[in-house]
Amino acid sequence: MKKIIGLSFALQLICISIYADVRLPALFTDNMVLQQCTDAPFWGEAAPNKVVKVMVGWEAREYETKSDNKGYWNINIPTPKFGGPYSITISDGKKVVLRNVMIGEVWICSGQSNMEMPLAGWGKIQNYQDEIAAANYPDMRLFQVKKVIRNTPQKDVFTENNTGWQVCSSKTIPEFSAVAYFFGRDLLKNRKVPVGLIHTSWGGTPAESWVSAESLETMPYFKDYVRQLKQVSQNDLSLFYIGQLKEWQRKVEEIDLGYEKHYAKWASPDFDDVKWEDMPVPGSWENSVLPDFDGVVWVRKTIEIPLRWQGKELTLRLGGIDDDDITFFNGEEVGHSEGWNVQREYNVPAGLVKAGKAVIAVRISDMALSGGFYGDPVTLQLMLKNSDSISLSGNWKYQIGLKQSEMPLKPISPVDNPKCPTTLYNAMLYPLAPFAFQGVIWYQGEANASMAEQYRTLFPLLIDDWRSLWKRNFPFYFVQLAAFNPERTEPYDSEWAALREAQLNTLHWNNTGMAVAMDIGNAKDIHPKNKQEVGRRLALIARAKTYGEDIPYSGPVFKAYRIEDDKIRISFSHVEGGLKTPNGESLKGFAICGSDRCYYWAEARIEGNEIIVFSPKVPRPYAVRYGWADNISCNLYNGAGLPASPFRTDSRY
Length: 653
Description:
Blueprint: H1 2-20, E1 33-35, E2 39-45, E3 51-56, E4 62-66, E5 72-78, E6 83-91, E7 95-111, H2 113-116, H3 128-133, E8 137-144, E9 165-168, H4 178-191, E10 195-201, H5 213-216, H6 220-229, H7 237-255, E11 259-260, E12 263-264, E13 277-281, E14 283-284, E15 295-305, E16 314-322, E17 324-329, E18 332-337, E19 343-348, E20 356-366, E21 372-374, E22 381-384, E23 388-391, E24 394-403, H8 423-429, E25 439-443, H9 452-470, E26 476-479, H10 495-505, E27 512-515, H11 531-546, E28 557-564, E29 567-573, E30 579-580, E31 590-593, E32 599-601, E33 603-607, E34 610-614, E35 623-626, E36 637-638, E37 647-648
Parallel strand pairs: 1-7, 7-10, 7-25, 8-10, 25-26, 26-27
Antiparallel strand pairs: 2-5, 3-4, 3-6, 6-7, 8-9, 11-12, 13-24, 14-21, 15-20, 15-24, 16-19, 16-21, 16-22, 17-18, 17-20, 22-23, 28-29, 29-34, 30-36, 31-32, 31-35, 33-34, 35-37
Helix pairs in contact: 4-11, 9-10
């Protein structure tokens, strides 16, 4: 009994000792950077109702506060002009010392994969080996937020391997955000102050993942889903998702033209598809018959089953399908899969196999980028015991069942899918507040390209949402989408162009800025390698708009137009040094239309700080577009060498 009592007393002492230590958020570690010239919030946990003292290295006085009944404490401490290194001591009786702390400029860097893209690793930016070797900047500090998903706001962020703040060096920079690094490097060199970079991003994520539930509830498209999501406990998320997905499928079937009272009528072998158009299979429909289409497409292939196959089980191989499919044989579902990287192979029951005509129907759902079948034509086969086979490559019949813009919000797993609305805001942004920083740089939009009209509202909502969290109108600078996908021979309506316009329109929000990247994209790579220039252009905006340097920071931005007989004259803002093209070459990337809205490639010339656009095919012009494509050669710059933003004169603001 004495041993038990003694052990119990010892454990109590250990627990009291542990509980007495001041506990700090993940943001407060050695090597951190504090924002200069501000009242910097400090916060953490201690024993309940305990006096907490903070001693800072830049002044002699001691700051004091008291924890509440639950042990939480917070205090604001004025920071001086840039400098360091300093030590900070925080104590409630036992000391916690933070060393090598700098005072300087702190920026949050966020978005999807083009912000996440590291110098090395999967990124391998241009000249990455030389850039890594040269990354010796002890006054730059890096903080990497770990990827975490949560359905409710969290108290603290996680960091990779609990590393906290790292001093920038050749050892710490390879897996850090390239855009953030080059932005910070430019600020460090030009402003001569320490720089702290907080990187929190996740590839492939849409903007709605980074917005609070309260803000998303103001948008009808997200309202019901996020309202229900935030009421679900973490343990019940899987059941919640399954229920939401079933309800979504029911709603979609009600409006999908391929269904009638939840019966897949377009999969029936008796359905007459003679009026349907042909689609080459395999191949992305966006590169052939359905450019820029996202939504549901039904495809059908009629084949002849030989008599020797009748009553025997078959194997149906369809290769890869982007993104999801439900596959039918003679009107009966034989399989379904989710994900573009899943190879489709389904068993066809012997009872469905009859000699003569048979119909294979596939309902394909694609919500972003390319859609349809892909891979080697030889992979598309209907087989009997891996020997006898019928090729399924060639033309299939197709019909649109439903456009994405007509669909309700598809539930996304809040357990393991970072695309789920509000989950990254909860886990990777909310816990950063109220840490003091100067501004935000943001590179995102690819994941929302199919919903550009919605992005007009969603993106400004995100900016307002973040500013509400910190209760401050901080600078928010972002990158416009770079060029991607093959160039086309004729003008067309582009979802990526519409998304760029939504980004451009966001410049109407106060204290924002946009870096154009159209000219440094890559037709074959959604992750262009020239991140140095992206970072430099973002830094130009910050240096001019945040730090007051008298330098050009934007390329030409469409301002106004007027129609002059058979020509359209366009004027711009941000024409420092005049309008130019590289090496004086002819202008490219302009298209013009009449009242019929049929666009033709146009000729264009520079007259002072204006552009004259015309085409003999359009004697009475109505509107002009520039750079209006996923990817198109554009070459309009100002004298500072900064590219013009794509635009259209008939856009609405």
